[in-house]
Amino acid sequence: MKTLTAAAALASVGGWAAAQEGGSGVEVLHWWTSGGEAAALNVLKEDLSGQSIGWNDMPVAGGGGEAAMTALRARVTAGNPPTAVQMLGFDIQDWAAEGALGNLNEVAAAEGWDAVVPAALQQFSKYEGNWIAAPVNVHSTNWVWANKAVLDELGIAQPTTWDELVAAMEAVEAAGKVALAHGGQAWQDATIFDGVVLSTGGPEFYKAAFIDLDPEALGSETMVQAFDRMSQLREFVDDNFSGRDWNLASAMVANGEAAFQIMGDWAKGEFKNAGLTPGEDILCFRMPGTEGAVTFNSDQFAMFNVTDETAVTNQAAMASAIMSPEFQVAFNTVKGSVPARTDVADTEFDACGKQGMADLAAAAEAGTLMGSMAHGHANRAAVKNAIYDVVTAHFNGEYDSQTAAEELVNAVEAAM
Ligand code: GAL
Description:
Layout: H1 2-12, E1 26-30, H2 35-50, E2 55-59, H3 66-77, E3 84-88, H4 89-97, H5 105-111, H6 113-116, H7 119-125, E4 126-127, E5 130-131, E6 133-135, E7 139-140, E8 143-147, H8 148-153, H9 162-174, E9 178-180, H10 186-211, H11 215-218, H12 221-234, H13 246-254, E10 258-262, H14 266-273, E11 282-286, E12 294-297, E13 299-303, H15 309-323, H16 325-335, H17 351-366, E14 369-371, H18 381-395, H19 401-415
Parallel strand pairs: 1-2, 1-3, 9-10, 12-14
Antiparallel strand pairs: 3-13, 4-5, 6-13, 7-12, 8-10, 8-11
Helix pairs in contact: 2-14, 2-16, 4-7, 5-15, 10-12, 10-18, 12-19, 18-19
Bound molecules: beta-D-galactopyranose.
Beta-D-galactopyranose (GAL) is lined by residues 31-32, 37, 63-65, 88, 139, 266, 297, 299, 375.
């Protein structure tokens, strides 16, 4: 009874109250299973539970979400889609094109999402003018994380250029520590490649190669140089890097076994979860040479077509909860990301979060805010996976840099 009253009260002030007490309000498919991710997910679960929206958990482990997307396809094929699904960029658009997604226009209009969600995100949250997903955050991939105590101990200053980064890694390695904490998984290799390509060629080049898929850029001398830089980085990973999960690589930086990790700011969620202070214990800086530009990805909850009216109401209630400014602060300060709304203050965010928010706004203004290739915001999954294959094959020594650039042209052409 108590919850019903609360729901009625919410509805009476114009909120999007859940349609039922507790129980199976929403079934949520996601890949947030690491310590930091789970802590952030808990913020969402608790927020919804406070609004009497029940939570039916469908976690599919695997950084970057590839396994989750495979599980999703199986569920939809079986005619049993989950109500809400964590999803990235072009995947949202692909499902919308298949007619699989529901419509959030009513709640979006009532709450004025059009005015507060940046255009770069709306291009993924909307399909043919209709809201189909609610963005929960903005992450970016061109970050480097460093254990400050390790750098201090070795007298290494925060690198400001590519050469300084390489010199710093050499010094760490010479001191017997792991220079670059990395997990050999295709999506992690590709995440590093986002920043390396941006650093090597600049924003125009990144755009030409990954967003416009211009064969000249893909096969260019600049791309060969970017692959050469990947080979340089390859020298700094430890012998056990193959297959390692990204959060275990973060843990190596957190506990001082390694100095650096090149990873999206979900790594910050791990550092916070380990009790470290970003900006103090853990330094955050943009991949040298990428300052002023941001390669972003936004986690959104896409709502699948469900026929049950209660389920539809719960979807709107969940979307409304996600879009509330208070929730965006509570969630993103834990997740490592920044808000998906432009009207949220940075007060509650740590130093790296404040920088993330400022960088995002500046890049949007300068036209250097670009979708992450590695995280499905530059092109569709088929193209993304084709790029993954080449980057990983090169990282593992199957191609030299010249061959890799040529293969990149071929692989992208075949996948388009
Ligand atoms: C990204 C996602 C992040 C984080 C990361 C590692 O694709 O946007 O939220 O979870 O994968 O799993």
